[in-house]
Write a structure and sequence with these properties.
By secondary structure, the protein is an alpha+beta fold. It is 51% helix and 9% strand.
Length: 412
């Protein structure tokens, strides 16, 4: 007997249709399922299986009709409003209720709206699709155009380059736990790990400002902040400084004297020009572009420094004419020739310590160093005595070719 399609399988007033079609030359029976509010066709190779499934669907829908028939006026009105609210979503009431129940269980309470708002902030649909590598390149270019010093740019390229290589994918995938695991795998010292964390934090801040990450992105806050023990401040004795000055090559001597008698950082000295040094007024101007803190400051030239620099008074252009590696080599060579171990930043620390002992004014010294008074007070108080400061600032060049006799004690 020939069966006419579509077949309708009924349960009460509910009917579910079965259609016949062919797939690759074989009959295929499709059951029309509207149970979730949308029409879906479920395929079966056997008609009996299709009828069984249609029966299950019809019974489930009929049971729903029975429940609906028993609803009161208030419940029917609530159901009607629920269906109206769901209409734009094209999600059935059954699916919506099931999803809500699962979320309710997961969150441990009625916090579905709060969780949805949090997720939307973290994963907004409108965010541009930006990879870590693309954003890193943009940040470095922005910093370059903003005038960031080349040494600082090199540091960014190194740290963020490694970060981009490790997180070669979308920005949002760089979560706090992944960043933490990456840093742990590098086996860094606490200070180095802190430096990486700072750079990554600055990077994610840049991405938030550019709109590549959502506002409030706090993944880096989940990364442990290493505790760095303060390193011991090393300074030179006056007799060691005398030996360093005596051993310094002529081209490096001004840089050495400026470091010890004015406290400038090595990077600032490398960017310093003779035009920034006014021997007549007695001040060195460290411009914002040459300062580590990007703020202009004026540093006094003490009498000893003025006389060490006097033979170079007519010079113009860069104080240090070599490159960064050459500056480092000159430091090491001078220390070796003087028989004095070269200690990184020790001349700046020495100036700060002896200057503080000389003036007992943390604010004044902080202004000369480009630091805060709190930093000066914390690091340089009681490292030197006033008598030692007097010896330090009394170090003068001896009589000889192209040098001038100096007074014994600095008056700055």
């Amino acid at each position: 007997m020939k069966v006419k399609f579509p077949i309708v399988v009924r349960a009460g007033s509910v009917g579910v249709k079965i259609y016949r079609t062919e797939s690759r030359g074989y009959p295929l029976f499709q059951v029309a399922d509207f149970s979730d509010g949308r029409r879906r066709l479920r395929g079966f190779a056997d008609l009996a299986d299709a009828k069984a499934e249609a029966g299950r669907i019809a019974n489930r829908l009929a049971a729903g009709d029975v429940v609906a028939a028993g609803l009161g006026a208030k419940e029917r009105a609530s159901l009607s409003r629920a269906l109206e609210l769901l209409k734009p979503t094209r999600v059935s009431l059954e699916v919506a209720a099931s999803t809500f129940a699962e979320c309710f269980e997961i969150l441990g309470g009625n916090r579905l709206l709060e969780a949805s708002q949090y997720f939307a902030r973290r994963h907004p649909i409108s965010l541009p699709k930006k990879s870590v590598r693309e954003a890193v390149e943009e940040m470095i270019e922005a910093k370059r155009q903003g005038g960031l010093a080349e040494r600082s740019l090199d540091d960014l390229r190194s740290r963020l380059g490694q970060f981009a290589e490790a997180f070669d994918g979308p920005l949002v995938a760089a979560t706090g736990d992944r960043i933490q695991n990456w840093l742990n795998g590098k086996k860094l010292s606490p200070q180095s790990a802190l430096n990486y964390r700072r750079v990554i934090s600055n990077f994610t801040g840049f991405c938030v400002r550019r709109g590549y990450l959502p506002k409030g992105w706090d993944e880096v806050d989940r990364v442990e902040r290493p505790r760095v023990r303060p390193s011991e401040i090393s300074i030179y004795r006056p007799d060691e400084f005398v030996r360093l000055l005596a051993a310094a090559p002529r081209e490096f001597l001004p840089s050495l004297a400026i470091a010890g008698f004015a406290g400038l950082r090595s990077a600032e000295i490398e960017r310093l020009a003779w035009e920034d040094i006014d021997l007549q007024s007695g001040f060195i101007t460290v411009g914002a572009a040459k300062s580590k803190t990007a703020s202009r400051r004026i540093v006094p030239i003490c009498e000893a420094l003025a006389n060490w620099l006097a033979p170079y008074a007519e010079r113009r252009g860069a104080v240090w004419t070599g490159d960064h590696d050459g500056f480092y080599d000159a430091q090491q060579a001078t220390g070796k020739a003087a028989g004095v171990k070269w200690k990184t930043n020790a001349l700046r620390h020495s100036y700060a310590s002896y200057r503080f002992a000389q003036t007992m004014d943390a604010g004044r010294v902080a202004g000369e160093l480009g630091n805060s008074a709190a930093v000066v007070h914390r690091h340089y108080r009681q490292l030197a005595l006033p008598a030692e400061a007097t010896k330090w600032f009394a170090i003068c060049p001896s009589m000889g070719e192209n040098v001038l006799p100096l007074s014994v004690v600095s008056k700055v």
